[in-house]
Request: fold
Amino acid sequence: MFSYICGEVTDLTDGVVTVDVNGVGFEMQVSSYTLAECRLGQKQRLYTYMQVKEDGIALFGFATTEEKAMFLRLISVSGIGCKVALAILSGMDCDSLALAIFNGDTKLLTKIKGLGKKTAERIVLELKEKVVVDAAQMVLPITQNPDLQFNKDMQNAIAVLCSLGKSQADAEKLVDAAAKLGATTAEELINMAFRIN
Reply:
């Protein structure tokens, strides 16, 4: 129903942000990452997901479209609801999470508070294929372009950006620019790419 909500941040509590839009306060549950992006009294746009259940309606807010996309992927995994997905996004930033799924790194995933081995394995099992498909679309053309030279970290970063919705051309440009600014590891490249964007 709502794609995003834009207004003044009037309240910040643990895991909840309230945004005032023309006198109406929208209370949204958020990850620790999104909470850190919000400032009291400042205008903020939060991308939203509305959960409708028999016992009520809940709004979830996200600072970026990438975080919302990852949230939607997580709740598509059997046994993972909105609150668990939000807890996962609070335990690991979106880029690192995507990279862990891409690499099938269940040990890293289980470091997130409350995320057990079986759930981590299920996340990898149900989401890795989607990430790999996107990665294949990214990596193959890279080797065919003589003008662009990408090492393994850069290829991994491009694959993750693609899995989060970036186009091949945009991901390549962002990673190339991030590398020129001094980023070297896949995680640094991804974080820098989002700051550039």
